[in-house]
Amino acid sequence: MFKLEENFRSTRHILDASNAVISFDPSRIEKRLFTRRGEGLPIEVLGFSYATEEAAAIIREIGRRAATGVAWHDMAIIYRQNRLSRTLEEALLHARIPYEIIGDVGFYRRTAVKDALALLTLCAWPDERRSDEAFRRMANRPPRGLGARGLGKIEMEASTGGLSLCAAATRTRLSPRCAVALQGFVQILRQIGCREGESLGERLTGLLEATGYLDMLRADDSDEAATQRENLAELIELAQGFRRVEHLLEHAALAGGAPGEKGRDRVQLMTMHRSKGLEFRHVFLPAWEEAIFPGAMPRNPEEERRLAYVALTRAMEQATITFCDYRQGGSSRPSRFIDEIPLENRVSSWNHGRNEPRQSDGRWRQVDQELNALGL
Protein backbone atom coordinates (compact mmCIF):
# COMPACT_ATOMS: atom_id res chain seq x y z
CA MET A 1 0.00 0.00 0.00
CA PHE A 2 1.34 3.43 -0.99
CA LYS A 3 -0.13 6.35 0.94
CA LEU A 4 -0.33 9.69 -0.88
CA GLU A 5 0.01 11.98 2.11
CA GLU A 6 1.45 15.21 0.74
CA ASN A 7 -1.15 17.93 0.24
CA PHE A 8 -0.26 20.62 -2.29
CA ARG A 9 -3.26 22.85 -1.60
CA SER A 10 -3.54 23.87 2.05
CA THR A 11 -1.33 25.22 4.81
CA ARG A 12 -0.41 23.32 8.00
CA HIS A 13 -3.06 24.81 10.30
CA ILE A 14 -5.80 23.83 7.86
CA LEU A 15 -4.45 20.31 7.40
CA ASP A 16 -3.92 19.72 11.13
CA ALA A 17 -7.51 20.79 11.80
CA SER A 18 -8.81 18.56 9.00
CA ASN A 19 -6.71 15.59 10.13
CA ALA A 20 -8.04 15.96 13.67
CA VAL A 21 -11.68 15.94 12.53
CA ILE A 22 -11.36 12.98 10.17
CA SER A 23 -9.32 10.96 12.69
CA PHE A 24 -12.58 10.15 14.53
CA ASP A 25 -13.81 8.16 11.50
CA PRO A 26 -13.19 4.49 12.47
CA SER A 27 -13.53 3.24 8.89
CA ARG A 28 -10.83 5.49 7.47
CA ILE A 29 -7.45 4.08 6.44
CA GLU A 30 -4.87 5.69 8.71
CA LYS A 31 -2.88 8.45 7.04
CA ARG A 32 -1.81 11.95 7.94
CA LEU A 33 -1.52 14.66 5.35
CA PHE A 34 1.41 17.06 5.38
CA THR A 35 2.28 20.15 3.37
CA ARG A 36 5.31 22.15 2.36
CA ARG A 37 3.26 25.37 2.11
CA GLY A 38 4.13 26.55 5.61
CA GLU A 39 2.17 27.06 8.80
CA GLY A 40 -0.35 29.54 7.44
CA LEU A 41 -3.19 31.00 9.49
CA PRO A 42 -5.23 29.18 12.15
CA ILE A 43 -8.90 28.39 11.50
CA GLU A 44 -11.15 31.31 12.39
CA VAL A 45 -14.11 30.17 14.55
CA LEU A 46 -16.70 32.85 15.29
CA GLY A 47 -20.09 32.73 16.95
CA PHE A 48 -23.05 35.05 16.34
CA SER A 49 -26.51 35.45 17.77
CA TYR A 50 -28.56 35.20 14.58
CA ALA A 51 -28.18 34.12 10.94
CA THR A 52 -28.59 37.69 9.66
CA GLU A 53 -25.74 38.83 11.92
CA GLU A 54 -23.62 35.91 10.75
CA ALA A 55 -24.27 36.68 7.07
CA ALA A 56 -23.54 40.39 7.50
CA ALA A 57 -20.23 39.62 9.22
CA ILE A 58 -19.15 37.15 6.52
CA ILE A 59 -20.02 39.53 3.71
CA ARG A 60 -18.27 42.44 5.41
CA GLU A 61 -15.14 40.31 5.79
CA ILE A 62 -15.35 39.31 2.12
CA GLY A 63 -15.52 42.99 1.24
CA ARG A 64 -12.56 43.77 3.49
CA ARG A 65 -10.44 41.10 1.88
CA ALA A 66 -11.44 42.20 -1.60
CA ALA A 67 -10.35 45.73 -0.69
CA THR A 68 -6.91 44.39 0.25
CA GLY A 69 -6.50 42.75 -3.15
CA VAL A 70 -8.13 39.30 -2.90
CA ALA A 71 -10.14 38.54 -6.04
CA TRP A 72 -13.83 37.74 -5.66
CA HIS A 73 -13.40 34.33 -7.30
CA ASP A 74 -10.73 33.39 -4.76
CA MET A 75 -13.38 33.41 -2.03
CA ALA A 76 -16.12 30.82 -1.49
CA ILE A 77 -18.98 30.28 0.94
CA ILE A 78 -19.66 26.58 1.46
CA TYR A 79 -22.68 25.36 3.42
CA ARG A 80 -24.26 22.03 4.35
CA GLN A 81 -27.82 22.72 3.11
CA ASN A 82 -28.78 24.86 0.14
CA ARG A 83 -31.56 26.64 2.09
CA LEU A 84 -28.79 28.37 4.05
CA SER A 85 -27.91 30.45 1.01
CA ARG A 86 -30.92 32.77 1.41
CA THR A 87 -29.55 35.16 4.06
CA LEU A 88 -26.12 35.09 2.41
CA GLU A 89 -27.58 35.92 -1.01
CA GLU A 90 -29.51 38.86 0.37
CA ALA A 91 -26.45 40.20 2.20
CA LEU A 92 -24.35 39.90 -0.97
CA LEU A 93 -27.00 41.69 -3.02
CA HIS A 94 -27.27 44.46 -0.44
CA ALA A 95 -23.49 44.89 -0.52
CA ARG A 96 -23.46 44.80 -4.35
CA ILE A 97 -20.91 41.98 -4.36
CA PRO A 98 -20.99 39.80 -7.50
CA TYR A 99 -21.61 36.12 -6.79
CA GLU A 100 -22.46 32.83 -8.44
CA ILE A 101 -24.26 29.80 -7.04
CA ILE A 102 -22.56 26.62 -8.21
CA GLY A 103 -24.79 23.71 -9.19
CA ASP A 104 -27.99 25.37 -8.00
CA VAL A 105 -30.26 28.37 -8.49
CA GLY A 106 -30.95 31.29 -6.18
CA PHE A 107 -33.27 30.77 -3.22
CA TYR A 108 -36.25 32.53 -4.80
CA ARG A 109 -35.87 30.51 -8.01
CA ARG A 110 -36.21 27.14 -6.29
CA THR A 111 -39.30 25.12 -7.14
CA ALA A 112 -40.86 24.88 -3.67
CA VAL A 113 -40.30 28.57 -2.96
CA LYS A 114 -41.93 29.59 -6.27
CA ASP A 115 -44.82 27.23 -5.56
CA ALA A 116 -45.39 28.69 -2.09
CA LEU A 117 -45.30 32.27 -3.38
CA ALA A 118 -47.82 31.27 -6.07
CA LEU A 119 -50.17 29.97 -3.38
CA LEU A 120 -49.88 33.25 -1.50
CA THR A 121 -50.66 35.13 -4.72
CA LEU A 122 -53.78 33.03 -5.33
CA CYS A 123 -54.89 33.45 -1.74
CA ALA A 124 -54.50 37.24 -1.87
CA TRP A 125 -56.09 37.87 -5.30
CA PRO A 126 -58.24 34.88 -6.37
CA ASP A 127 -60.59 37.06 -8.47
CA GLU A 128 -57.93 39.14 -10.20
CA ARG A 129 -56.17 38.28 -13.45
CA ARG A 130 -52.77 38.86 -11.87
CA SER A 131 -53.23 35.51 -10.10
CA ASP A 132 -53.69 33.59 -13.39
CA GLU A 133 -50.09 32.50 -13.77
CA ALA A 134 -50.10 31.30 -10.16
CA PHE A 135 -53.25 29.26 -10.89
CA ARG A 136 -51.62 27.65 -13.93
CA ARG A 137 -48.68 26.71 -11.74
CA MET A 138 -50.55 25.35 -8.72
CA ALA A 139 -53.94 24.07 -9.90
CA ASN A 140 -52.53 20.57 -10.34
CA ARG A 141 -49.88 20.56 -7.59
CA PRO A 142 -50.49 18.16 -5.95
CA PRO A 143 -52.34 16.34 -8.77
CA ARG A 144 -56.09 17.07 -8.93
CA GLY A 145 -56.85 15.43 -12.26
CA LEU A 146 -56.50 18.65 -14.26
CA GLY A 147 -54.89 18.10 -17.64
CA ALA A 148 -54.18 20.35 -20.60
CA ARG A 149 -57.71 19.92 -21.99
CA GLY A 150 -59.33 20.84 -18.67
CA LEU A 151 -57.11 23.86 -18.25
CA GLY A 152 -58.01 24.92 -21.78
CA LYS A 153 -61.71 24.84 -20.88
CA ILE A 154 -61.03 27.01 -17.84
CA GLU A 155 -59.06 29.44 -19.98
CA MET A 156 -62.01 29.73 -22.41
CA GLU A 157 -64.50 30.25 -19.56
CA ALA A 158 -62.30 32.96 -18.06
CA SER A 159 -61.88 34.71 -21.40
CA THR A 160 -65.61 34.61 -22.18
CA GLY A 161 -66.74 35.80 -18.76
CA GLY A 162 -63.92 38.23 -18.04
CA LEU A 163 -62.94 36.19 -14.99
CA SER A 164 -59.75 35.13 -13.33
CA LEU A 165 -58.77 31.48 -13.86
CA CYS A 166 -59.39 30.81 -10.18
CA ALA A 167 -62.95 32.15 -10.42
CA ALA A 168 -63.59 30.41 -13.73
CA ALA A 169 -62.44 27.04 -12.38
CA THR A 170 -65.61 26.61 -10.31
CA ARG A 171 -67.87 27.47 -13.28
CA THR A 172 -66.30 25.24 -15.89
CA ARG A 173 -67.72 21.81 -16.75
CA LEU A 174 -64.98 19.32 -15.93
CA SER A 175 -64.82 15.65 -15.00
CA PRO A 176 -66.48 15.01 -11.61
CA ARG A 177 -63.21 14.12 -9.88
CA CYS A 178 -61.39 17.18 -11.19
CA ALA A 179 -64.35 19.52 -10.51
CA VAL A 180 -64.62 18.44 -6.87
CA ALA A 181 -60.85 18.71 -6.33
CA LEU A 182 -60.65 22.19 -7.88
CA GLN A 183 -63.67 23.43 -5.95
CA GLY A 184 -62.01 22.28 -2.74
CA PHE A 185 -58.76 23.97 -3.75
CA VAL A 186 -60.46 27.30 -4.52
CA GLN A 187 -62.49 27.09 -1.31
CA ILE A 188 -59.30 26.65 0.73
CA LEU A 189 -57.75 29.69 -0.95
CA ARG A 190 -60.77 31.86 -0.21
CA GLN A 191 -61.23 30.67 3.36
CA ILE A 192 -57.60 31.22 4.33
CA GLY A 193 -57.60 34.56 2.50
CA CYS A 194 -60.49 35.75 4.71
CA ARG A 195 -58.82 34.86 7.99
CA GLU A 196 -57.91 37.79 10.19
CA GLY A 197 -55.23 38.13 12.82
CA GLU A 198 -52.84 35.65 11.22
CA SER A 199 -49.23 36.46 10.46
CA LEU A 200 -48.04 35.95 6.90
CA GLY A 201 -45.97 32.99 8.02
CA GLU A 202 -49.04 31.37 9.63
CA ARG A 203 -51.08 31.97 6.48
CA LEU A 204 -48.42 30.37 4.32
CA THR A 205 -48.17 27.37 6.65
CA GLY A 206 -51.97 26.98 6.51
CA LEU A 207 -51.96 27.07 2.70
CA LEU A 208 -49.20 24.49 2.39
CA GLU A 209 -50.95 22.14 4.80
CA ALA A 210 -54.56 22.57 3.64
CA THR A 211 -53.81 22.24 -0.08
CA GLY A 212 -51.89 19.01 0.47
CA TYR A 213 -48.62 20.46 -0.78
CA LEU A 214 -46.65 19.53 2.34
CA ASP A 215 -48.21 16.06 2.40
CA MET A 216 -47.00 15.62 -1.19
CA LEU A 217 -43.44 16.41 -0.11
CA ARG A 218 -43.67 14.27 3.03
CA ALA A 219 -44.74 11.27 0.97
CA ASP A 220 -41.53 11.59 -1.02
CA ASP A 221 -38.53 10.31 0.96
CA SER A 222 -35.95 11.57 -1.53
CA ASP A 223 -33.22 14.03 -0.61
CA GLU A 224 -34.70 16.49 -3.10
CA ALA A 225 -38.04 16.52 -1.27
CA ALA A 226 -36.28 16.97 2.06
CA THR A 227 -34.40 19.92 0.62
CA GLN A 228 -37.65 21.45 -0.64
CA ARG A 229 -39.16 21.14 2.84
CA GLU A 230 -36.12 22.91 4.29
CA ASN A 231 -36.49 25.72 1.77
CA LEU A 232 -40.15 26.11 2.73
CA ALA A 233 -39.24 26.32 6.41
CA GLU A 234 -36.79 29.10 5.53
CA LEU A 235 -39.46 30.94 3.51
CA ILE A 236 -42.01 30.67 6.33
CA GLU A 237 -39.51 32.20 8.75
CA LEU A 238 -38.83 35.00 6.26
CA ALA A 239 -42.57 35.62 5.75
CA GLN A 240 -42.97 36.33 9.46
CA GLY A 241 -41.11 39.60 8.89
CA PHE A 242 -43.67 40.92 6.38
CA ARG A 243 -47.17 42.22 7.06
CA ARG A 244 -48.53 42.15 3.50
CA VAL A 245 -48.29 39.61 0.70
CA GLU A 246 -47.33 42.22 -1.88
CA HIS A 247 -44.36 43.32 0.21
CA LEU A 248 -43.02 39.77 0.40
CA LEU A 249 -43.55 39.26 -3.35
CA GLU A 250 -41.77 42.53 -4.16
CA HIS A 251 -38.87 41.49 -1.93
CA ALA A 252 -38.67 38.08 -3.62
CA ALA A 253 -38.75 39.68 -7.08
CA LEU A 254 -35.91 42.05 -6.23
CA ALA A 255 -33.77 39.49 -4.42
CA GLY A 256 -34.38 36.78 -7.01
CA GLY A 257 -33.94 38.97 -10.04
CA ALA A 258 -30.16 38.87 -10.20
CA PRO A 259 -28.50 36.00 -8.33
CA GLY A 260 -25.32 36.78 -10.22
CA GLU A 261 -24.76 35.95 -13.84
CA LYS A 262 -21.95 33.54 -14.50
CA GLY A 263 -18.62 35.22 -14.83
CA ARG A 264 -14.99 34.88 -13.93
CA ASP A 265 -14.68 37.21 -10.95
CA ARG A 266 -17.48 36.34 -8.56
CA VAL A 267 -17.72 35.01 -5.03
CA GLN A 268 -18.66 31.32 -5.23
CA LEU A 269 -21.57 29.85 -3.21
CA MET A 270 -22.15 26.09 -3.03
CA THR A 271 -23.03 23.12 -0.86
CA MET A 272 -20.34 20.89 0.59
CA HIS A 273 -21.19 18.14 -1.88
CA ARG A 274 -20.71 20.54 -4.78
CA SER A 275 -17.35 21.72 -3.45
CA LYS A 276 -15.58 18.37 -3.89
CA GLY A 277 -12.52 18.74 -6.07
CA LEU A 278 -12.51 22.55 -5.91
CA GLU A 279 -10.13 24.89 -4.11
CA PHE A 280 -10.17 28.53 -3.05
CA ARG A 281 -7.76 30.82 -1.26
CA HIS A 282 -10.40 31.84 1.28
CA VAL A 283 -13.30 29.63 2.41
CA PHE A 284 -16.19 30.59 4.69
CA LEU A 285 -18.13 27.77 6.37
CA PRO A 286 -21.37 29.05 7.98
CA ALA A 287 -23.90 27.23 10.18
CA TRP A 288 -21.62 24.69 11.84
CA GLU A 289 -24.30 23.83 14.39
CA GLU A 290 -25.54 20.55 15.79
CA ALA A 291 -29.03 21.01 14.36
CA ILE A 292 -27.61 21.44 10.86
CA PHE A 293 -24.17 19.90 10.66
CA PRO A 294 -24.08 16.99 11.37
CA GLY A 295 -27.81 17.42 12.07
CA ALA A 296 -30.09 16.05 14.78
CA MET A 297 -30.45 12.58 13.21
CA PRO A 298 -28.03 12.22 10.31
CA ARG A 299 -28.60 9.22 8.05
CA ASN A 300 -24.86 8.62 7.81
CA PRO A 301 -22.84 10.27 10.62
CA GLU A 302 -19.50 9.31 9.10
CA GLU A 303 -20.46 10.85 5.76
CA GLU A 304 -21.11 14.11 7.65
CA ARG A 305 -17.62 13.88 9.13
CA ARG A 306 -16.11 13.31 5.71
CA LEU A 307 -17.98 16.38 4.45
CA ALA A 308 -16.43 18.41 7.27
CA TYR A 309 -13.03 17.21 6.12
CA VAL A 310 -13.84 18.08 2.49
CA ALA A 311 -15.11 21.54 3.42
CA LEU A 312 -12.04 22.44 5.47
CA THR A 313 -9.58 21.19 2.86
CA ARG A 314 -11.13 23.35 0.11
CA ALA A 315 -9.25 26.26 1.71
CA MET A 316 -5.75 27.02 0.50
CA GLU A 317 -4.89 29.90 2.83
CA GLN A 318 -7.74 30.77 5.19
CA ALA A 319 -10.76 28.87 6.51
CA THR A 320 -13.49 30.50 8.58
CA ILE A 321 -16.13 28.57 10.55
CA THR A 322 -19.18 30.36 11.95
CA PHE A 323 -22.19 29.32 14.03
CA CYS A 324 -25.24 30.96 15.61
CA ASP A 325 -27.01 30.77 18.96
CA TYR A 326 -30.42 30.95 17.27
CA ARG A 327 -31.56 29.88 13.82
CA GLN A 328 -35.08 29.52 12.40
CA GLY A 329 -36.66 30.51 15.71
CA GLY A 330 -34.86 27.87 17.79
CA SER A 331 -31.70 27.76 19.87
CA SER A 332 -28.65 25.93 18.58
CA ARG A 333 -25.17 25.02 19.71
CA PRO A 334 -21.81 24.71 17.96
CA SER A 335 -21.10 21.61 15.91
CA ARG A 336 -19.17 18.79 17.55
CA PHE A 337 -16.69 19.07 14.69
CA ILE A 338 -15.54 22.43 16.05
CA ASP A 339 -14.58 20.88 19.40
CA GLU A 340 -12.49 18.30 17.55
CA ILE A 341 -10.25 20.98 16.02
CA PRO A 342 -7.15 21.36 18.27
CA LEU A 343 -6.94 24.67 20.14
CA GLU A 344 -3.55 25.40 18.61
CA ASN A 345 -5.12 25.30 15.13
CA ARG A 346 -7.99 27.73 15.72
CA VAL A 347 -8.72 31.20 17.01
CA SER A 348 -12.01 32.72 18.16
CA SER A 349 -11.57 35.93 16.14
CA TRP A 350 -10.71 37.18 12.68
CA ASN A 351 -7.07 36.73 11.67
CA HIS A 352 -6.67 40.43 10.95
CA GLY A 353 -3.03 41.43 10.92
CA ARG A 354 -1.63 37.91 11.21
CA ASN A 355 0.83 37.26 8.43
CA GLU A 356 -0.98 39.77 6.22
CA PRO A 357 0.99 42.15 3.99
CA ARG A 358 1.72 45.30 5.98
CA GLN A 359 -0.31 48.25 4.78
CA SER A 360 0.26 51.91 5.44
CA ASP A 361 -2.35 53.92 7.35
CA GLY A 362 -3.23 55.56 4.05
CA ARG A 363 -3.90 52.18 2.47
CA TRP A 364 -6.23 51.17 5.31
CA ARG A 365 -8.13 54.45 4.97
CA GLN A 366 -8.58 53.54 1.30
CA VAL A 367 -9.84 50.10 2.35
CA ASP A 368 -12.45 51.70 4.61
CA GLN A 369 -13.56 53.98 1.79
CA GLU A 370 -13.91 51.02 -0.57
CA LEU A 371 -15.94 49.07 2.01
CA ASN A 372 -18.27 52.03 2.47
CA ALA A 373 -18.68 52.26 -1.30
CA LEU A 374 -19.66 48.56 -1.32
CA GLY A 375 -22.31 49.24 1.30
CA LEU A 376 -20.49 47.14 3.92
**Can you tell me the CATH architecture of the largest domain?**
3-Layer(aba) Sandwich
Helix content: 40-55%
Q: Average pLDDT across residues?
A: 91
Question: Oligomeric status of the shown chains?
Answer: single chain
Shape: elongated
Keywords: ATP-binding, Helicase, Hydrolase, Nucleotide-binding
Domain UvrD-like helicase C-terminal: 12-277
Pfam family, one: UvrD_C
Protein name: DNA 3'-5' helicase II
Overview in brief:
GO terms for molecular function: helicase activity. The protein is α/β, with parallel strands linked by helices and 376 residues long. It has two domains: 207 residues, Rossmann fold (3-Layer(aba) Sandwich), CATH 3.40.50; 147 residues, PCRA, domain 4 (Orthogonal Bundle).
Task: Report what the structure shows.
Helices cover 48% and strands 11% of the residues. The chain is α/β, with parallel strands linked by helices and 376 residues long. The chain folds into two domains: 12-106 and 263-374, P-loop containing nucleotide triphosphate hydrolases (Rossmann fold); 109-255, PCRA, domain 4 (Orthogonal Bundle). A hairpin with a 2-residue loop joins strand 7 (326-327) and strand 8. Helix 4 crosses helix 11 (223-239). The chain is elongated, with a radius of gyration of 24 Å.
Could you outline the blueprint of secondary structure elements for this entry?
Layout: H1 12-22, E1 43-48, H2 51-67, E2 75-79, H3 85-95, E3 99-101, H4 111-124, H5 132-138, H6 148-161, H7 165-169, H8 176-194, H9 200-210, H10 213-218, H11 223-239, H12 245-256, E4 267-271, E5 280-285, H13 291-295, H14 301-312, E6 315-324, E7 326-327, E8 330-331, H15 336-339, E9 346-347, H16 361-374
Parallel strand pairs: 1-6, 1-9, 2-4, 2-5, 3-4, 5-6
Antiparallel strand pairs: 7-8
Helix pairs in contact: 1-14, 2-3, 2-16, 4-5, 4-8, 4-9, 4-11, 8-9, 9-11
